[in-house]
Amino acid sequence: MNWYYAKNGAQQGPVALEDMKSRIAMGEIAPTDLAWREGMADWMPVSSIAELKVEAAPPRPETGPYAAHPGQAQPTPVATAAPEQPYRAPQAAPAPVPAAYQGGQPPSQGLAIAALVCGILALVSCCVVGFFNLPLVIAAIVTGHLAIAKIKGNPTAYSGKGMARGGLITGYLGLLGAIVIGIFIAKVGSMDPIKIEKWIEDFTVEHAPPEKQQEIRDQFEQQRKARGQ
Prior knowledge:
This protein folds into three domains: 3-52, Dna Ligase, domain 1 (2-Layer Sandwich); 110-188; 193-226. It is 48% helix and 7% strand. It contains six helices and four strands; from the N terminus they run ββαββααααα. The chain has helices at 17-26, 110-129, 134-153, 161-189, 193-206, 210-226; strands spanning 3-7, 10-15, 34-37, 44-45. α2 (110-129) packs parallel to α4 and α3 packs antiparallel against α4 (161-189).
């Protein structure tokens, strides 16, 4: 079974399994490099592929006429490259390496970022514009669900599930805040102005210091007399 791997943005291969393991053991292929073979759905990091696990062999003592004596420096071993396998045409064309994959870390899902931004704006604006924040709420919820679905479908290519969930939470909180403020405005709008003023007066007096309560009531009474009520 031939393997392909991506190194420094370039696709390499085909490489036989034993040759692939040899290159991994020598460090020519890093654990974060992407690899693929026929039958795999997508490219994956080398460290996450069980077939490419390489166990380190225990060091062997030097023997023979050139073995170093105690106190002498050991000669530096020279690594020899494994023989290249002759090129054979693959049975199927390898899947393309994800263009946005850099450094072995999947990029953040753009929809997740959009969901978080829209959710924060929806939560902040619900206190000011009420139900007029609904476009932001809808955008945060829709993009959040789409982002989570894409990340679950291809976790090796996308990240950002935390941002998507944050966008959903703030979007739903923005919707809840808009509903509460809308109900409050509707309730206050249906009340009689005199009752509203009386409620404001009672609330103000109740939370004022005892020595100021009568003075506040007198001020409200003077305002009503000035309006002829």
